[in-house]
Amino acid sequence: MSLPSSAPLGRPATSARTPESLLRGLARGRDSRGARAERLTHIHRVPAREASPAPFPDWVTPTLYGALTQSGVGELWSHQREAADAAHAGEHVVLSTGTASGKSLGYLLPVASDLVDGAMAPTGRAATALYLSPTKALAHDQLTRLEALALPGLRPATYDGDTPTQERRWIRDHANYVLTNPDLVHHSLLPAHERWAPFLRALRYVVIDECHVYRGVFGTHLALLLRRLRRVAARYRSYPTFVLASATVADPGAHATRLVGMPVRPVTQDGSPRAAMTFGLWEPGMIAGNGADGSPPRRRSAVAETADLLADLVAQGVQTVAFARSRTGVEVVAAAARTHLREVDPTLEGAVAAYRGGYLPEDRRELEQALRSGELMGLAATNALELGIDVHGLDAVLLAGWPGTLASLWQQAGRAGRAGEESLAVLVAADDPLDTYLVHHPEAIFDAPVEAAVLDPENPHVLGPHLAAAAAELHITQEDEAYFGPQMVPLLDALVARGILRWRPRGWFWARADRASDHVSLRGSGETVRIVEQRTGRVLGTVDDSRAHAAVHTGAVHVHRGDAYVVTELDLEDASALVVAGDPGWSTQARSVSAFNIVRVERSQEWGRLSCCFGAVQVHTQVTSFLRRLPTGEVLGEHLLDLPLRTLSTKAVWWTIPPEVLETAGIGEPDIPGAAHAAEHAAIGMLPLVATSDRWDIGGVSTALHPDTGLPTILIYDGHPGGAGFAERGYEAVRTWLTGTRDAIRACRCATGCPSCVQSPKCGNGNEPLDKAAAVVLLDVTLAAAGPGCAPGSGAGGGVSRPVTAAAPRRRGQ
Ligand SMILES: [Zn+2]
Ligand SMILES: [Zn+2]
């Protein structure tokens, strides 16, 4: 390893080193496993963006204008102006632009102007606004900023679980800008809306910050909560304007519209300036399996590879933060980087630290100070949001594995870059088909996003409980179908039959003595199983009931927030799993048998002799045993479990292929199960390409002959009762999704299948049978029949992408 002693990247320096030359230098560096150039699959230059300024609108109240100019805001960016004008005119609007583009000013202008003017009016509290954020920390951060502006007449206050009772009363009666979260609206504001009547009567704006996080089941809950809020507000004759802020996702307008239940105008042209960034995509090399038990070769881990890169960068004086997905990953990156550095230069060993969150404030300040002074040159950390420390302005960012969404990717990459200086970011692919795909398909990252935030406000499993809560707030009438849709009446009747509601000629009424909102948790669907520490009785967290059998069966090694626990007993009756802390040195994998039946086809498309459907299904699963496995892959033993069969009613996307079509393509009958199973695994892993889902939210079943279809069938389903919207998005973007799936398998350089392509960490069949080559053929046949669709990421965006000559990315259709 050569160690030039030039000045660090990004600092005023005599060195002519650019981020790109640095990146190529890393790729040239050699280690025991051969040339690294092969691993750098792509270099993308994210160009600097010119600022597009806009003047303040005339309607901004002079007090606010004065306060903003005094705080240094001289003019606006064009997107702030566009969103502010729309909201001021009463149009629902969603502002979806990059990290640090000043989205909050877009909603602050109309909201604060109206509130300040209203407060100055002789009538007193003439306008109020509600601000919803997914986290307490974000609401407090907003409050600090508002207080710094010291606007006379603006009375902001945070209202959350920690707010004392006497303060709550003051807030209800006097605050005109209430910063809170969805849980408080659900548990406190709506059930006690009479007490909030003056506030609700004056409600002019509802601001929803970071609205891209409301997806899947959580998104469905928020969508229904907002319908309840609109219904109660209408009771007080107020019809607030909704202003939403979102990270960049595909079609933010459609997401916001579904969330709010009314048309929302998208503002997506980012007018804020940005420094250029060089972005490298990196795929770790293959390492041989240990051979002893026939374990196949697999890719070197993203964590080990990231540690090498971190050490190289620090040794060259480049201040770098490396993000890993788990706390264990963070420890490994920091420890391995220190070991490498010790070999090169013992004085550098102490220049790398691990940060796992949860530190005391003084520790955090110390860390920030060490970063600023340059004493600390490398930091390994879990995702940026929970950091709680300011690490802006570093030279380079390393990402060990795809962080889950484009929004997270840009948020983390955005930690690099001193004012106006070019920065470097490198995404290191983890063992996952999506990661494999992305490092070979830069357009899916750098061009127009294809991943969409999804939710399904019609999910009866979520809608039912919200209807009960709504009836407790205000009795429901037939007209409320305008908020809750056509499924409302049948669901209300079912609630009446269960004695939860009572029907009267005037409508449906809450029939019980307790609080309806206590029966609905906004964070999950249906029941949960508590994870309880055996020694202390402390509840560490919960797992969804639907996942409990596979994740926390007796004997399971369960990783919770990066720490390992062993389950000593799963008590189904008590809905709890008792655990003891500690890593026994092996992992466990549940084995199960699954089958499904089709309840209802809701949408379908014919592809010649193939067909693709979306609809309601029942998935029947029984966890039968579990395997104990060493980190090398060696199996220590299989242990039987006695768990009941479970049935999940959910939504799914599936497609069928007649065996003759497969036969013609060279897949004989005995090869169908392996082909379908491998395609199913990769398709599950690739769904996040088009829907912001987590691999663990999705399940799949494939079969060579299904009784309902009479054909080989591959089914991908939402892992939540009633569905979450992921499978539906898969159906809508099926060509993009399955093209990506085929390309991910094809791009993987393993011979017969590995975790980067067709193996799945949660397979109930122990990854048997899997036929990688036949899966590619099966997907080729499927895509040829489906015809052309939209390729991911065509058009917008910017920048110059170049394949790295040593390893040109494979192209589609090759
Ligand atoms: Zn592979
Ligand atoms: Zn499987």
The tally of helices reads 25
Task: Count every beta strand, where a strand is a DSSP E run of 2 or more residues.
Answer: 34
Strand order of the largest sheet: 17-18-16-19-20-13-3-34
What is the rounded distance between the termini?
36 Å
Q: Give a quick account of the main beta sheet: strands, pairing sense, barrel closure.
A: 8 strands, mixed
- The poorly predicted ranges are 1-15, 790-798, 803-814
Helix- and strand-based class? alpha/beta
Strand content: 15-25%
Mean pLDDT: 87
Ions and ligands? zinc ion
Q: Nearest-angstrom radius of gyration? A: 27 Å
Helix content: 25-40%
Summarize the structure.
The chain is α/β, with parallel strands linked by helices and 814 residues long.
Describe this structure in words.
It is a single chain. With 814 residues, the chain is α/β, with parallel strands linked by helices. It is 33% helix and 24% strand. It is built from 25 helices and 34 strands. The strands form eight sheets. Strands 17-18-16-19-20-13-3-34 form an eight-stranded mixed β-sheet, sandwiched between helices. A seven-stranded parallel β-sheet has the order 8-9-7-10-11-6-12, sandwiched between helices. A hairpin with a 2-residue loop joins β28 (587-607) and β29 (610-629). α17 (460-473) crosses α19. The longest helix has 20 residues, at 216-235. Bound molecules: zinc ion (2 copies).
